[in-house]
Amino acid sequence: MKSKILLKIKSTSKSTYFWFFVVLFFLIILFFLVPELLSSRILNEGESKINEVTKSLEKLVKPVTPLDTIAYDKKLEEIANNPPDKIVYQSIKTIEKDPEGKQASYGAGKNGKVVTKIIKVPMDPQPVVSHLWPVKTVYPNAGAILPFNRIIAYYGNLYSKGMGVLGQYEEKEMLERLDAEVKKWNIADPSTPVIPALHYIAVVAQGSAGQDGKYRARMPDSEIDKVLAIAAKINAIVFLDIQVGLSNLQTEVPLLEKYLKMPQVHLGVDPEFSMKNGIRPGKVVGTYDATDINFTANYLSKIVKENNLPPKILIVHRYTQNMLTNYKEIKPLPEVQIVMHMDGWGGAAKKINTYRQFVYKEPVQFTGFKLFYKNDILTPGTTLMTPNDLLKLSPQPVYIQYQ
């Protein structure tokens, strides 16, 4: 009995040892294989997650296409809308013998055997004709709106029905009217996409001095925020306009910096209400100098650089000679595109003459044109200028403002 028990124990021990070595063998194999499998799995999962994040970022951040300078120059030539250059002829004199020795009808010598002919032929090459437009300035940074797009803007102040259509109508009707104008321009010039805009007077010139005696009122942030919210509904850009009164741009522009840091917000400045002579606004037309415009452009440029923004647009209103002095000194920058905006009112002939005298003849970079729904048609028989009317101008305006 004892021998049987011993035999059973020995048999059990052998079986245990066998399975122990089998398990050990598999553990050793797994020790070497599993880390590789796990590491490969972890790497694959990590790579997959990185790819997912990258794709999400690509959807959120649209890449900015570098500026095509050839297309840019071509578009500038297009909107310059210069008339065809006149062909210049030269006179060429030729002397020929009359084969029959008969008196020629003209240009013959005394014996009637020589014929002198004078003909006019186009000069080759034709002389180079210089034009005021397009203006040769710096190329803008990537992401510039102009000149590949045209901006159609509604102007005004939410507090006032008399300062423009932006405040004249309820939001829904105002946006419907703006959309109607946008569609007209898309039809008139399909080659230049339209961007809608709201041009809001954020600093308003006043007839009263106010607490600081500067004859201007700054709109509260809550009103500017309303305009931004309205613009967002139609993917419009926003212009904040400044009428300084007896203040100045050096004081007023920095106060709007938090809004100018936004990529969709641009700026307008109005020399009409820059009262450097100390007379209150509305009595006489004010003025800016190139130094004022350059200060503003440089300030915007700084904001663009510090916040990695696409170029800003600076609108400068003008309808008289003295509203802007030393225009040749104005310096467009890669970060700031400057639009000289004709905002005089009246019949078409008067407006076109103003445009030719004070915008065409004193080129800076781009041009704008204002249309007044009411004041432009005060004279009986006059009608509001159409997109096709404005597209005949040289240069063609790339910023159109409705008031």
Describe this structure in words.
With 403 residues, the chain is of the alpha/beta class. The chain has 2 domains: 89-129, no CATH class; 150-402, TIM Barrel (Alpha-Beta Barrel), CATH 3.20.20. Helix content is 37%, strand content 20%. It has helices spanning 2-60, 69-80, 165-168, 171-188, 221-233, 249-252, 257-260, 290-307, 348-360, 387-390, and strands at residues 89-97, 114-122, 150-156, 194-205, 216-218, 237-242, 265-269, 288-289, 312-318, 324-325, 336-342, 366-371, 399-402. The strands form 3 sheets. Strands 3-4-6-7-9-11-12-13 form an 8-stranded parallel β-barrel, surrounded by 4 helices. Strands 1-2 form a two-stranded antiparallel ribbon. Helix 9 links the parallel strand 11 and strand 12 (366-371). The longest helix is centred in the N-terminal third of the chain and has 59 residues, at 2-60. The chain is elongated and about 95 Å long. Mean pLDDT is 85; it is low at 1-14, 30-43, 53-61 and 103-109.
Write a concise keyword list for the protein shown above.
alpha/beta, eight-stranded parallel β-barrel, TIM Barrel, single chain, disordered N terminus, elongated, 10 helices
In short:
This protein is of the alpha/beta class and 403 residues long.
Number of helices: 10
Name of the CATH architecture of the largest domain: Alpha-Beta Barrel
Could you say which structural class the secondary elements and strand pairing correspond to?
A: alpha/beta
Roughly what is the average pLDDT, rounded to an integer? 85
| Amount of helix | 25-40%
As a whole number of angstroms, the C-alpha radius of gyration is: 37 Å
Under the CATH scheme, which class of the largest domain? Answer: Alpha Beta
